[in-house]
Design goal:
By secondary structure, this protein is α+β, with helices and mostly antiparallel strands. The protein has two domains: 200 residues, Nucleotide cyclase, GGDEF domain (Alpha-Beta Plaits), CATH 3.30.70.1230; 151 residues, Alpha-D-Glucose-1,6-Bisphosphate, Chain A, domain 4, CATH 3.30.530.20. The protein is built from ten helices and 15 strands. The strands form two sheets. Strands 1, 2, 3, 4, 5, 6, 7 and 8 form an eight-stranded mixed β-sheet that branches. Strands 9-15-14-13-12-11-10 form a seven-stranded antiparallel β-sheet. A hairpin with a 2-residue loop joins strand 14 and strand 15. It starts with a strand and ends in a 16-residue tail after the last helix.
Length: 375
């Protein structure tokens, strides 16, 4: 490992978006989904950087960005705040519209908040390979400012040194309504301007999810049903959780994710990889969970064929599973399927159901999706 120390003091923009609500997520029971959602949100924030910010650290629910050199103009800075805030809330909008899982973490994701703190000061540091570690009084100031007494949920906080060094050349956006404030810390008194972002939130364009509806042009070519001696949470969890599919689906070696979704949702794409044939891309087109019933519809990306899974509560320890095989409603495809594929697919699906029955027995101790209020 190569460490390079650079004691030269340099001016730097220090910029930190911080997600509110992370603590409530990680102290809940659905910690895996909470962490996955936060990871995706942090990636969205990083991808929305357009002023050359470098990632210094990922600090749980926050990202420490920096940019060495002169301060940006106030125009540039506020455009960065607006872009980051907009992309953050559009991600949450889209996740809520495509959400399948009813767990507390997924349900509460749309309520996450974002605050952004920006400061300009002097730093020094060292590099370990390609990673640069900054330190100095102004780095401490930035972190202290996250712990303030402001009674605001979402805001942009810009310290006076940055406001003074960030010249503006155009009229400021209407959402930026700065108020003067100051806080006392162990590093001394820090003065800053703060603007509530509630007005900007009303200006965030609505996120429009892609429409997946090829199943509407299909018809049921056969149906398999079975009674499971297992609660609906366990059975539908094994279907919903793509990582479990290869443990019960007949002939499937592994699941290969096509989209980067960490939590399954409408629009998630994957491949069921088998040993001797090409694996089509499967798209989750529709899902519904609640009132003692759970449904999931998947079609291949070309809209040729797919499955509808419906699980229904019988009692606390039993449920009924219905699987419909779907094929696009065209005479040619229906004829090809009927003559050459139907019997084989029926046998394969029946074997999968028997595997799933075994897999859902308590002795397997398989991970379960938390499905609330199904019964």
């Amino acid at each position: 490992m190569t460490t390079e120390t650079n004691t030269t003091i340099q001016p730097a923009l220090l910029f930190m978006p911080d997600i509110s609500g992370f603590t409530e997520f990680v102290t809940g029971t659905e910690i895996t989904h909470a962490q996955s959602i936060i990871q995706e949100v942090l990636e969205t924030i990083i991808e929305s950087n357009h002023i050359g910010l470098e990632v210094g650290e990922i600090e749980g629910d926050a990202i420490f960005f920096y940019r060495l050199g002169n301060a940006p103009s106030l125009d540039q800075l506020l455009k960065q705040v607006q872009t980051m805030f907009t992309k953050f809330h559009q991600y949450l909008q889209l996740y809520e519209k495509q959400r399948i899982c009813p767990c507390e973490a997924c349900y509460a994701a749309s309520q996450l908040k974002l605050k952004i703190v920006a400061h300009f000061g002097e730093v020094t540091g060292y590099s370990v390979k390609s990673h640069r570690k900054l330190f100095g009084k102004d780095v401490i100031v930035l972190h202290r400012l996250l712990k303030n007494s402001l009674n605001k949920k979402e805001y942009a906080l810009i310290t006076d040194p940055l406001m003074e060094g960030a010249a503006t050349t155009i009229q400021l956006p209407d959402w930026f309504e700065p108020e003067g404030a100051k806080e006392q810390y162990d590093v001394g008194e820090v003065s800053f301007k703060v603007s509530d972002l509630a007005k900007l939130k009303t200006q965030v364009p609505e996120a429009i999810p892609q429409d997946f509806n090829s199943a509407k042009g299909s018809q049921i070519v056969f149906t398999e049903e079975a009674i499971f001696q297992a609660p609906i949470q366990r059975v539908f969890g094994a279907i919903y959780d793509l990582s479990q599919r290869s443990k019960w689906m007949d002939g499937i070696q592994r699941i290969e994710m096509v989209t980067k979704d960490l939590v399954h949702r409408v629009g998630t794409m994957h491949r069921c990889v088998a040993s001797k044939r090409n694996s089509p891309i499967i798209v989750t087109e529709y899902a519904s969970i609640g009132d003692g019933r759970a449904e999931l519809v998947e079609m291949d990306k070309k809209g040729i064929a797919g499955c509808r899974y419906v699980a229904e509560v019988i009692n606390d320890e039993q449920c009924k599973l219905t699987i419909d095989m779907l094929v696009r409603k065209t005479p040619f495809l229906l004829a090809i399927f009927s003559f050459f594929m139907k019997k084989k697919m029926q046998r394969q699906l029946r074997r999968s159901i028997e595997n799933l029955k075994e897999y859902c027995k308590p002795s397997f101790l398989n991970p379960q999706m938390t499905v609330t209020e199904l019964n």
